[in-house]
User: Fold this.
Amino acid sequence: MTVTTPEAALEQAALAGIHRLAIPTPFAVGRVNCYLLEDEPLTLVDTGPNSGKALDELQGKLAERGHSIDDLELVIVTHQHIDHIGLVEIIVEHSGAEVAAIGAAAQVLANFNEDAEAQDRFAVDLMLRSGIPEEVTAALQSVSRSFRSWGSRVQVTRPLDDGEEIPFQDRTLRAMHRPGHSPSDTVFWDEERRILIAADHLIAHISSNPLITRPLDGSDERTQALVAYIESLRKTREMPAEFVLSGHGEPIVDHVALIDDRLAKHERRKEKIFKLIAERPRSGYEIAQAIWGNVAVTQAFLTLSEVIGHADLLVNEGRVREVVDGEVIRYEAAG
Ligand SMILES: [Zn+2]
Assistant:
């Protein structure tokens, strides 16, 4: 049977015991999709942010299906972002559930507060070196601090290897590491039913920002988030998924078309950035301003991540090089 609409995908998922629970967040992205797997063990994929409102709604939605938080036996964490992990600790306190996540992220998840601090320092340093004014970085840092209470530390009790299978009574899910949107992004594949739980790796209505993030090994070496993301998208493109369940919004019934669309968009943006660099050397901030105007100020880190991601592609192609100009890194056309 071929699923052709998001509604049909949700119905198919429900028949397979996978129920979408859309939990409110205080963030611009809106609700986050958690998925209840009615199987043994009884499992929740992602939890929503750490807030009373999110907890109330989660409890209400579990109760509609005859469960409570105490009944959960396994929590699967798809990635390190706070809208997905915030309630893990509270759920574990109530239920004693096991917590599964990609093993490489266990350290970062366990040291949530320290890691968030380190990520903020890393981001400020990168923004300053990209020519973003100090007052803008300071404002963003205080926003980031105010968001932190919606997160929580997560003690991973079942660290997963890339490719490892999680056995349930009625299904098997294979964990597949797909870094890019965050370094810990992991998708979960039900090969028998051809259902992919992909969280924020692929979202129908918004493109997943390849946010520049400290690597999971705790070093301060910047990784190439967009390069990694494109590689991850190409792997997902090859999967014979019937549909994809996302971390926000509706299921995706044609992931190949969506991924092709995203890849084409990145290609166009890359060429646009190359044109700006070919005109004259520019810092990341100057490029972001040329493309996004004032949004480059209010969403400085997001837009900078976009610019640096595409500039990395150009650097790897040998068309652009980074030149250190005093405190600031500029990009210039090579050759
Ligand atoms: Zn999310």
In short: The longest strand covers residues 18-23.
